[in-house]
Amino acid sequence: MKKCLLAVITVMYSCCLLAQLPQPTDYLPASFHKGRRDALRALMPPRSVAVFFASPERNFSNDVNYRYHANPDLYYFSGYTEPNGLLLVFKEKQSAGSDTPYDEVLFVRKKDARREMYTGKRLGTQGAKEKLGVGLVLEGSALKQFPVDLKAFDHIIYDGVKDLADDYTSNDDIYDLLNVFKEKAGFGGYDDQAAEQYTKLVAYDYLAEDDYRPRVIAGLRESVKQRPALANDSLFAALLAAKDAAGMRAAFDKIRTARINTTMYSQFTNRLRQIKTPEEMELLRKAIDISSLAHVEAMKAVRPDMSERELQGVQEFIHKKLGAEDVGYGSIVGAGENGCTLHYETNSATAVGRDMVLMDVGAEYHGYTADVTRTFPTNGRFSREQKQIYDIVYEAQEAVFAICREGTSFSAIEDTAAAVVARGLMRLGIISNPADVRKYYPHGCSHFLGLDVHDKGEYDVLKENMVITVEPGIYIPPGSPCDQKWWRIAVRIEDDVRIDKQKMELLTNLAPRKTEDIEKVMQQKSFVDDLKISLPAPKKGF
Ligand code: GLY
Ligand code: MN
Ligand code: MN
């Protein structure tokens, strides 16, 4: 009888397994996240705890939310991607509340059969223990009674929660978790918004100097006008009261050594996340390859009568076809003068027309995002003027590539790109003074890339296994003070590179950059060429 029962159970179990549809298998392993927690602990001072809250869910419309995007720091250190999570990483082993000592605890959403029926499976404590391998896993509701005395820690390494709002239908959403945590950790009148402001300032010690201090203080006073409560925060008030550089530095020091410490949070997360591990590189390469191949397909597909959104759809279809979950930032598809709007995301032109189109679109793969821009003529051939502008941007990129190696400073990159663009614009008579270069090239050349499109890192000097973008551009809107033949030309070329000791590795090499190579690719047939689909003639009224 027993044997019979066992056979039935085995068959049922196998059927269940067979019924499961295939899923990606290349997620970051638990060992990666554990390694990151260990690396964090190594940076933390004695008697400290680092705190990572999940991002809040955001409403899209009525009872529909936006796609949930995990807080990249929580994901990096735990692998947990559900809402309402909280990770505490302790410097030293703790024993309160557990028979086995632990130096990390993850609070997760509780299982809820009814809600899971609507929105999908939750890991719960058991699933999180098995899948993520964090030392101790508890439900969010257990935080209140959690026996570790958080008030006794010398440093609480903390960053607040962006865009926080209470979900009044729940008493253990992130708003509630944060409030319970603050109460337990003795936050008193601590002000998250004040901290957000001074954390940014402290990263730049030179702001204490006479050249900058009065401007900084004027800026802080302006913020207090908007939100008078800021002045009640003692650290914010210390900055406002600084009379000279020494006073301001003393206020900076107070901020750097505060018990509730946001500067350590940004320092440690910057320092770790800026250097990519082999596991991260695998995912980042995938995101970048997917995006690069999708750019090629967009080049093949474009026709002057196509809409900006149609082109966006072609690109994003290829992302999905190749396994990406989403885009890592709002897709920018700007035809003609729309390309001059740096973060143009409306993509509303119903025909791209006969100018160029600038596509800044990057896929997100398991949390890691690419950031790639290509600019190409919608009719497949660069005009003389388009090519002249394009080649300056290309030359600026090449000049930056040549210095991208360990030890190069970000300021050298910025100066190099701006100098090449300035020289090119002077040569074409578009500007007559190199200082005017910023009229047509208003943004920076490089930023870190990873879990955030503008990823965390220290903007100092390049180190091995950093991944950055190289993205000079020239934008000439109609009405610019130069010959009209240049108007409406907007070019950005954006590539992603990994830094090595002596050189760099171009990660975006699957997407052509040279004008001749782009023109060649654009002659190829596209998978949408034969797609014939249109709406029926519109009916008026009922
Ligand atoms: N896609 C945003 C940027 O290039 O920085
Ligand atoms: Mn970028
Ligand atoms: Mn970009």
- Characterize the main sheet: 6 strands, mixed
Percent range for β-strand residues: 5-15%
**Shape verdict:** globular
Query: By CATH's scheme, which homologous superfamily of the largest domain applies?
Result: Creatinase/methionine aminopeptidase superfamily
Spans with pLDDT under 50 lasting ≥5 residues?
none
Counted by DSSP, the helix tally is: 17
CATH hierarchy, class of the largest domain:
Alpha Beta
- Based on secondary structure, the structural category is alpha+beta
The domain tally reads 3
Give me the count of strands. 19
Distinct small-molecule ligands in the complex: glycine, manganese (II) ion
Any idea what the CATH architecture of the largest domain is? Alpha-Beta Complex
Can you describe this structure?
With 542 residues, the protein is an alpha+beta fold. It folds into three domains: 27-185, Creatinase/prolidase N-terminal domain (Creatine Amidinohydrolase, Chain A, domain 1, 3-Layer(aba) Sandwich), CATH 3.40.350.10; 192-249, no CATH class; 274-522, Creatine Amidinohydrolase. Helices cover 39% and strands 14% of the residues. It has 17 helices and 19 strands. The chain has helices at residues 2-19, 30-43, 72-78, 113-119, 124-132, 174-185, 192-202, 213-226, 234-240, 245-257, 262-273, 278-301, 308-321, 384-403, 410-427, 437-440, 515-522; strands spanning 48-53, 59-61, 64-65, 86-94, 102-108, 136-139, 155-157, 260-261, 326-327, 332-335, 356-360, 363-365, 368-369, 373-377, 467-470, 473-476, 489-492, 495-499, 504-506. Strands 6-5-4-1-7-8 form a six-stranded mixed β-sheet, with helices on both faces. A hairpin with a 7-residue loop joins strand 4 (86-94) and strand 5. Helix 2 (30-43) packs across helix 3. The longest helix has 24 residues, at 278-301. The chain is globular, with a radius of gyration of 26 Å. The mean pLDDT is 95. The structure holds glycine and manganese (II) ion (2 copies). Residues 360, 371, 373, 494 line the site of one manganese (II) ion.
